[in-house]
Amino acid sequence: MHKLDENQWVSDVWPDLGTAFSLKISAKLHEEQSPFQRIAVYETSHFGRLMTIDGIIMLTDRDNFHYHEMLAHPALYNHPAPRNVVIIGGGDCGTLKEVLKHDEVESVIQIDIDERVTRVAEEYFPALCESNGDPRATLAFIDGIRWMAEAPAESVDLIIVDSTDPVGPAEGLFNVDFYRNCRRVLRSGGILVQQSEAPFLQLPWLLDIRAAMAEAGFMSRKTLSFPQPVYPSGFYSATLAGKDHDLGFFREADARAKPFVTEYYNAGIHRASAVLPEFLKRALD
Amino acid sequence: MHKLDENQWVSDVWPDLGTAFSLKISAKLHEEQSPFQRIAVYETSHFGRLMTIDGIIMLTDRDNFHYHEMLAHPALYNHPAPRNVVIIGGGDCGTLKEVLKHDEVESVIQIDIDERVTRVAEEYFPALCESNGDPRATLAFIDGIRWMAEAPAESVDLIIVDSTDPVGPAEGLFNVDFYRNCRRVLRSGGILVQQSEAPFLQLPWLLDIRAAMAEAGFMSRKTLSFPQPVYPSGFYSATLAGKDHDLGFFREADARAKPFVTEYYNAGIHRASAVLPEFLKRALD
Question: Does the interface ipTM go beyond 0.90?
Answer without folding.
Answer: yes
